[in-house]
Design goal:
The structure is a single chain. By secondary structure, this protein is an alpha+beta fold. 48% of the residues lie in helices and 13% in strands. The chain is built from 5 helices and 5 strands; from the N terminus they run αβααααββββ. Strands 4-3-5 form a 3-stranded antiparallel sheet. A hairpin with a 7-residue loop joins β3 and β4. It is globular, with a radius of gyration of 16 Å. The chain starts with a helix and ends with a strand.
Length: 164
């Protein structure tokens, strides 16, 4: 009976944490950047949540991350492009639709967070094969974990830039 209680408690704690994937260490070497504004930190945290779910091809959790990101973006002036992309992810279970919207979201989030990093690094990664012409994404880890192909081509891409 104790194990069941512990399992329920852990599930409740997971819900309280809003299923926060940004706190997960995918490689053992994650260095989460710090931001000079909590609103930008929240945006990046939820962006990472979506990215990690797309790496894992988990469309349902990507939707949840997008819903949380929409709430965070509502507090940022000039976030309309990111909001539009986030809403497309939140409104679809189709990984292809979510991944295409994520490419647009990545560009928009990059523009929002530049200049707001207090410490740490964000890696701007690039997959030359995504969508025929390539696509970028942001990551807190240097290792490539491709959100556009998931397990099919998890390491496809390269670090294009380090944002500090």
């Amino acid at each position: 009976m104790l194990l069941i209680t512990v399992a329920c408690t852990n599930a409740q704690e997971k819900d309280k944490m809003n299923h926060d994937h940004s706190k997960m260490d995918m490689t053992g070497m994650k260095m989460t950047p710090e931001f000079n504004d909590l609103n930008f930190a929240a945006v990046y945290e939820h962006y990472e949540h979506i990215k990690n779910d797309l790496v894992g091809s988990n469309s349902g959790d990507a939707q949840k991350g997008a819903i949380m990101l929409i709430d965070a973006l509502d507090k940022i002036k000039g976030s309309e492009e990111a909001l539009t992309a986030s809403k497309r992810i939140a409104n679809s279970f189709d990984l292809k639709v979510q991944r295409k919207a994520f490419a647009e979201l990545s560009n928009a989030v990059e523009g929002l967070i530049r200049g707001h990093i207090k410490s740490g690094k964000i890696y701007k990664d690039f997959c030359p094969m995504a969508f025929g012409s390539g696509a970028h994404w942001l990551s807190s880890i240097e290792d490539i974990r491709n959100p556009y192909y998931g397990a099919n081509m998890i390491n496809c891409g390269k670090v294009a830039e380090v944002i500090e």
